[in-house]
Predict the 3D structure of the following.
Amino acid sequence: MTTAVESEPGAKPGPARSGLVAISRAPWWVRYALLVVGLAVALRLPNDLYPAVAVDILCWALFAVSVDLLLGFTGLMSFGHAAFWGTSAYVAGIAAIKAGLPFPLAVLTGAVAAAVIAVPIGYLAVKRTGIYFAMVTLAFAQMIYYVANKWGSVTGGENGLQAVPRELGGLDLSDEFYFYYAALPIALLGLWAAWRIVNSPFGRVLVGIRDNPARARALGYPVHRYKLTAFVLSAFLAGLGGGLFAMGHQFVSLDVLHWTTSGKAVIVVVLGGIGTLWGGVLGAALLVRLEDWLSFSGFEQIGLVTGTIFVLAVLLFRRGIWGTAVALIQRWQARRGRTDG
């Protein structure tokens, strides 16, 4: 049976596939070179930035990629993804404090908890589309925010969870520099999982559902089931980022569940490039670094700057930074091909 994404012969690839298609069709040495450069940057990052900022970049990169998995590859705009990011942060923090779990197990526990609560939320939300889907996710996220605020005996309420330990055997991870390298493998596994999802037959079906759900349904694909699966996978990836965020800061506050956190993740995805996957990583690095620089410079209206950047990105770089760069490279290759021909 032909997959939904392949249903239109000769059709141009959608924006959510163009960047990945361009990379996948590049010579093998180009792909390996990009991989090596990316790993080198990741390994070098805490030497060039404050290690705490480097850890935040890892966390927000995972969060942005999880949102892009829904927005760019499934066509679902979630305004409530902070529910999964924050739930994982709280569960991971509680698991580390109460059960004394090593931080990788605590992070995994938080991510699983995020995926579990995503099942009923997604089951109800994926039956809606467009702004209605976004509002349903936002409503559930605010409900979880309210529960966390009122359940002070467990979550700490307005005081949050403090002194979250990050144990790993006998290793001393109190230094942010060493914690970054302990957290890096988890972040890389999460990013690899996202890449594997979108480059699998399952990912191609998601793009087909995004482009034409009626046609995908006619081809025999259970659209709601695919959307729900993508929703749960996205929540799990967001949970990985949220758990690492709790361990990195050793503190969990209600801000991790606030709707503005979901909005920030969407801004990161739009800045990097919707549907490019790696654009979320780039957007996270730029936005986190900018916020850090503004805070140290004494500038208090950080939201004004990030909001302005979001507006400019929408107006001037509609494909985002990564998407625009890929489009320029493709245009240059096309002109070169016509010249050679």
Observations:
- The longest helix spans residues 223-249.
